[in-house]
Specification:
The complex is a heterodimer. Helices cover 40% and strands 26% of the residues of chain A. Chain A is α/β, with parallel strands linked by helices. Chain A has a single domain, classed as Rossmann fold (3-Layer(aba) Sandwich), CATH 3.40.50. In chain A, strands 3-2-1-4-5-6-7-8 form an 8-stranded mixed beta sheet, with helices on both faces. Chain A is globular. Chain B is α+β, with helices and mostly antiparallel strands. Chain B folds into 2 domains: 143 residues, Jelly Rolls; 48 residues. Chain B is built from 9 helices and 8 strands. In chain B, the strands form 2 sheets. Chain B has a 4-stranded antiparallel beta sheet. Chain B has a 4-stranded antiparallel beta sheet with strand order 2-7-4-5. The radius of gyration of chain B is 18 Å and the shape is globular. Classes of the chains: A alpha/beta, B alpha+beta. Chains A and B meet through helix 3 of A and strand 1, strand 2 and strand 8 of B.
Chain lengths: 165, 193
């Protein structure tokens, strides 16, 4: 009977955004996709809604509004964009779980620190996924946040593995 | 985003800018659309909400499917299920946005931290809770002994603007009267002017 959680997805690549959105929509989350590329995504969203009946998926063009409405924020962005995105969403991401998806194994510790510094009052959880499998390694300082993310990924059909440091 | 919160807090206590900056980091900014839920019956109430914009209502639904509204929360008001918040037990309440809302939510661990780091907040929340207790007693007595007209007048005095912003059936539910009775009372009030 729990209130449906809202997840904002900010991704540099549309396919990544849609793939995550699809799985989370099936797991009964409300999805806000943030992108300026309205025309590209409109068709994909209609397709998604046909595949997942009752899916609550919406396209927004404002990052701040999407993250303001969200309970959990998912970022799949290049390290170069992190500064800009963090600046835009910082105020409305306070106390929220921010999951950063990465498929680059290199320097994951460095990336964690950078994002934590950019969003000091958010609960940053790093998720590393080798796109060939559904295994996702997750780690973060806040244990409860990490567990929430693990549970979310599990219901979405991923195979989360909590990395212990 | 935090101006109203600051205003309300400093009505009761003095805090420095640094203390308020710290306070801000403990609140989760949440936007709700009209008719979205903050809490549903059976959930644990993990957050207490301060309303910056919009209106929330808290209500229960009885076995016959009838809604009973406990409280509205307008701008500058707080809303939460204290019992569920403090005990982690499931809540019996539903909390819903009547208009699009901007809220500041605080979790129990954050709230405990706030009270620990800035003891002045003990006074602030003590004042909030004592006022709530007084208001609750008055509402209880009102339910038991006041006429529909008296309850209606109290409502529009306590919640200015509610007639324009809250749907009639919800006002009737809050007052514990039927919509027909509400219409009659409003008609009588209008003709007395």
């Amino acid at each position: 009977m729990a209130v449906k959680k809202t997840i904002a997805i900010i991704a540099s690549e549309e396919e990544v955004a849609l793939a995550i959105a699809h799985k989370l929509a099936q797991a009964n989350y409300r999805i806000l996709l943030v992108s300026k590329e309205k025309n590209l995504l409109d068709q994909s969203l209609s397709d998604l809604k046909k595949k997942v009946p009752n899916a609550e998926v919406e396209l927004l063009d404002c990052m701040k509004d999407g993250c303001w409405e969200a309970d959990i924020i998912i970022l799949s962005i290049t390290p170069e964009s992190e500064n800009v995105v963090a600046e835009l969403i910082k105020q409305v991401a306070t106390q929220k779980i921010v999951v950063s998806f990465s498929n680059q194994e290199k320097n994951i510790d460095g990336q964690v620190e950078i994002l934590k510094n950019l969003l000091p009052h958010s609960k940053v959880v790093m998720a590393f996924n080798n796109s060939k499998s559904f295994k996702i390694f997750i780690e973060g300082d806040d244990i409860e946040a990490v567990q929430t993310v693990a549970a979310m990924l599990l219901t979405a059909g991923y195979h989360p593995l909590i990395a212990d440091n | 985003m935090y101006e109203l919160l600051h205003k309300k807090i400093t009505e009761s206590i003095s805090i420095t800018d640094e203390e308020f900056d710290f306070c801000k980091t403990l609140f989760l900014p949440k936007k709700l659309r009209k008719r979205q839920y903050l809490l549903q019956e059976g959930d644990v109430c993990r957050y207490t909400a301060f309303v910056t914009k919009g209106i929330l209502r808290s209500y229960t639904i009885d076995n016959k499917g009838t809604e009973h509204i406990l409280q509205f929360a307008f701008e500058g008001w707080w809303m939460g299920d204290l019992y569920s918040f403090l005990t982690d037990e499931p809540s019996m309440y539903n909390m819903e946005a009547i208009e699009n809302c901007e809220l500041l939510l605080i979790s129990k661990p954050s709230w405990e931290l706030l009270l620990e780091k800035i003891p002045a907040f003990e006074r602030y929340f003590r004042i909030l809770i004592q006022n709530n207790l007084i208001a609750t007693q008055q509402r209880l007595m009102g339910t038991l002994s006041e006429t529909a007209e008296e309850k209606y007048l109290k409502l529009i005095n306590n919640y200015p603007g509610c007639l324009q912003r809250v749907p009639q059936h919800m006002i009737a539910s809050y007052l514990g009267i039927t919509r027909e009775t509400l219409s009659r009372i409003r008609g009588q009030m209008a003709s007395r002017k």
